[in-house]
Amino acid sequence: MINTVAWFEIATDDPQGAEKFYGELFGWSFATDEGSAKNGMDYRLVGYPGGDGPKGGLYATGGGSPNHAVFSVVVADTGAACERVESLGGQVVFKLLENPNGPDFAYVRDTSGNLFGLFTPPHLRGTRE
């Protein structure tokens, strides 16, 4: 699964409205992500009817960042992937490495300015691509 799209995120300043919209549109359910809550974030995991686990999340921004929807790619090493992004002319917008309560992750921009995410699940930390 390395280097594949494995997650999506919807960030909004109206999480209840987004839950209602996507819940009614697709039948999605939402549950608090306890690891994110420990970091002081309101992040909710998206569940699907008949799905085997969350493949996305809803981030309640509280107005602290722009609303967006973004895909994320699982990588073996988020820090190294961020370095590659920059070496290829992209930009690292935010990164959290050695996250004790969840995956290492980063938001980056490609050379056209498109935002996307990178993440390394805790069980993959230390592996090589």
UniProtKB/TrEMBL annotation:
Entries under InterPro entries matching the protein: Anthracycline_SecMetBiosynth, Glyas_Bleomycin-R_OHBP_Dase, Glyas_Fos-R_dOase_dom, VOC_core
CDD domains noted in UniProt: SgaA_N_like
Limits of the VOC domain: 4-121
SUPFAM superfamilies, sorted: Glyoxalase/Bleomycin resistance protein/Dihydroxybiphenyl dioxygenase
Classification via PANTHER family: GLYOXALASE-RELATED
This protein's name: VOC family protein
